[in-house]
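Lab meeting, item 3. Inverse folding demo.
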């Protein structure tokens, strides 16, 4: 008996047509989605006014600045509400867990990626759970990739319209020369001789902006927390001139001959000198488990880093030196966070990259700030209860998609690196870090489900 054909010729034609129509329909849908994404991105880039922060719409002030996240707050503060504004750069904003309006907001929305997970998220969680009868508002008014001067501009609007009970300022990672000059620093070592002059100018500008923020808060009788800035010192390679001593030190470190690295680099290394000398000397002391000495040279390496990516000690010290005032409290997040990290040396175990923390890191900074708020605005007796609070979670599936996109971002940076050797090493570390986070995500989420007290009891 002959085999019966699976389909007649007519059936095959119908099937081909259906598949063809389905293919064209899918193409049209993809084109429309891409068009909407591009249109939204272009609209944000063109219409975004960097001088405008909030606009009034239907009883709310809505964030309009392209460097801020999508956020809003009631124009009329609810009775009994406690309203906090958080200002600063991308660390204060919560990168990599949040995104600015100006860039990939459409893509993030399309892929259902999180827009929460920074300090503002966890402060609101802590205080709302501790005081469920109160309305707690924590407005994330930080601006990614912007310096303290940009936060000062935001603050000028907030004192007019915000009706703030507290303003928190965490800024210092974006104090650097213009992008054009920064690129030259990365490209040409000859420009590095200007680093001391530029650092002095930037320190003066930072101090002036800092004083202006403090004066503005005092003039409007608004309490303020001014914070020092923690950064990744252990696992971020600074930019500076390479030499034969550095190459030799790297080989010795690979062989775990730490004392020989100390003997080699100690006579050559001084604060304010070559950042790579200081960094590899710190690595050697780290290997010898001399953590206090390692910390000294890791910080010296950060302060001499020619990439101008991380807050420097003069800026954190300027915050610490703010004169005492009843309305102003200095919160030394750098020292608090370093104290609680492994061996007091924060690295890629705590940070996603050079200054942006992982979820538990942002949660810990929020805990420090929440403890201060409970002391100053609520009841000091409630402070121990904070450690028993379980925080809300972000969906693991969202985080995995987020980490995959962030890996692509850093892959792009690898191929657009000016200072290639240092940048390639840092990019490789960051990408490996995101990959580890994806693999360990289930563990990370489980940790966030436990209270701080439960973690400490383990």
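The presenter then showed the designed sequence:
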């Amino acid at each position: 008996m002959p085999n019966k054909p699976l389909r007649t010729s007519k059936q095959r034609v119908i099937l081909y047509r259906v598949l063809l129509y389905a293919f064209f329909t899918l193409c049209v849908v993809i084109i429309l989605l891409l068009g909407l994404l591009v249109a939204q991105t272009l609209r944000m880039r063109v219409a975004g006014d960097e001088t405008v922060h909030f606009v009034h719409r239907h009883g709310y002030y809505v964030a309009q600045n392209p460097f801020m996240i999508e956020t809003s707050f009631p124009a009329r503060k609810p009775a009994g509400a406690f309203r906090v504004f958080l200002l600063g750069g991308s660390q204060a904003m919560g990168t990599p867990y949040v995104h600015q309006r100006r860039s990939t907001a459409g893509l993030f929305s399309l892929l259902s990626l999180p827009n929460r997970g920074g300090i503002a998220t966890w402060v609101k969680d802590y205080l709302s759970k501790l005081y469920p009868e109160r309305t707690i508002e924590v407005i994330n008014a930080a601006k990614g990739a912007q310096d303290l001067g940009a936060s000062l501009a935001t603050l000028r609007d907030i004192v007019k319209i915000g009706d703030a009970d507290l303003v928190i300022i965490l800024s210092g990672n974006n104090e650097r020369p213009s992008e054009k000059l920064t690129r030259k620093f990365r490209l040409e070592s000859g420009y590095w001789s200007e680093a001391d002059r530029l650092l002095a100018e930037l320190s003066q500008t930072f101090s002036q902006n800092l004083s202006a923020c403090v004066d503005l808060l005092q003039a409007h009788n608004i309490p303020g927390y001014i914070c020092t800035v923690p950064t990744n010192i252990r696992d971020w390679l600074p930019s500076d001139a390479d030499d034969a001593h550095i190459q030799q030190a790297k080989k010795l470190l690979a062989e775990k001959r730490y004392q020989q690295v100390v003997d080699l680099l100690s006579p050559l290394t001084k604060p304010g000198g070559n950042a790579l000398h200081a960094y590899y000397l710190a690595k050697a002391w780290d290997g010898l488990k001399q953590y206090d000495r390692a910390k000294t040279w890791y910080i010296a390496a950060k302060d001499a880093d020619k990439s101008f990516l991380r807050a420097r000690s003069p800026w954190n010290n300027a915050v610490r030196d703010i004169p005492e005032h009843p309305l102003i409290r200095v919160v030394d997040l750098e020292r608090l966070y370093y104290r609680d990290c492994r061996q007091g040396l924060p690295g890629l175990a705590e940070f996603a990259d050079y200054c942006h923390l992982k979820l538990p890191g942002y949660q810990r900074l929020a805990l420090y700030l929440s403890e201060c708020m409970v002391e100053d605005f609520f009841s000091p007796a409630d402070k121990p209860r904070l450690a028993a609070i379980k925080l809300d979670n972000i969906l693991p599936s969202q985080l995995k998609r987020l980490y995959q996109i962030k890996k692509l971002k850093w892959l792009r940076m690898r191929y657009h690196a000016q200072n290639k050797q240092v940048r390639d090493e840092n990019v490789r570390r960051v990408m490996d870090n995101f990959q580890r986070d994806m693999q360990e995500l289930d563990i990370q989420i489980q940790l966030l489900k436990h209270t701080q007290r439960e973690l400490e009891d383990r």
